[in-house]
Design brief:
By secondary structure, this protein is mainly alpha-helical. The protein has a single domain (2-28, 46-277), classed as Vanadium-containing Chloroperoxidase, domain 1. The chain is 66% helix and 0% strand. It is built from 10 helices and no strands. It has helices spanning 2-26, 59-72, 79-105, 110-119, 125-142, 145-172, 196-211, 217-235, 241-262, 267-277. The chain is globular. The chain starts with a helix and ends in an 11-residue tail after the last helix.
Amino acid sequence: MLQRGFRILLLSITVAASPGLAQDVQNQDTGDDSKVQAPKTENPAEPEAHGSRMKWGDLPRNAWHDEKHFAASPFHISGGDAKLWALFGVGTAALVATDKSFEARLPDTARQRSVGKWASRAGADYSIYPLTALFYFYGKADKNPRARDASRLGIEALVDAEITVNVLKTVTQRGRPETKTSSIAFFKGGDAFPSGHSIQSWALARVVAREFSGNKAVPVLAYGLASTVTVARVYGRRHSPSDAFVGAAMGYFIGDYVYRHHHAPSPKAKVALWVADHVSFGVGVGKP
C-alpha cells in the first residue's frame, strides 16, 4: 500500500509536468541562440525575446500584476483549461482522501527524517534564492543573456510562489504529518498546505527548463531536482502527498506563466499579455 502511495504521488507529479516536457522537446531547435551576434548592452535583443529583455526594475510591477491575475483566474477559465483544472481538482481530492492512510503506513525513523531533510534542502529559501542569483552572475561573466533572464524570471517566479503559498497556508491551516498520529486536518492552525519547498522548486524548474529548452539535459535536471525535493518532503514526514502535489502543480504553472508573460516585456508582448489577462490563469501550457 505504501509503495502504491508513492507511485500515485510520482505519477501525479509526472502528469503535471508532462505537457511542459513535451513542449521543451518540440522547441529545442529554437532555444539555443548563443551564437547570435547581439548588441553590447545589459539586455541584448534576441529573436525569441521580440525586443527588449526583462530588467530588475520590472519585478515589483510584474509580481503585483501576477498576483492579481492568479486571484482572478478561477473566474476566467476557458473550455480547454477547464479540463486541466478538473484533473487538478480530482487529483488533489483523491490524494487528500488517502493522505491519512498513507501517513499511517509511512515509516517514522530518525534516519528517514534525516534523509528527507537533507534531500529537500535544495528547495529551501537559503538554497534556492542563492542558486537563482548564480544564474545572473554567471550570465554577466559569460555574457550569456539567457542565464541573466533565467535569474530575473526565476526570482519573479519564486516571489510569486512565496506570496501564493503563504496566502494558501494562512487560509487552509493544515497540520503536518510529523508522526503517525499527528492531525493533518484543515483549519486547525497548521501551515502544511501546500508545500512551500515544492511550489518554489517547480516554479524555478519550469522557468529554467523553458529558458534553456534547446539543451535536452537542462529540463531533465531541473524537473528531476524539483521532483526530488517534492518526494523528500513527503518521505521526511514534513508534508502529506496532497500538500506536495498541489505545491508541484501550482509551482509549475506559476513558472510557466511568468516565463510566457514576462520573458519579453516589449510592446508586442504587452498586447499579448492583455489578451491573456482575459483568458485564464495561464494553464495553457502549449501557448508561446
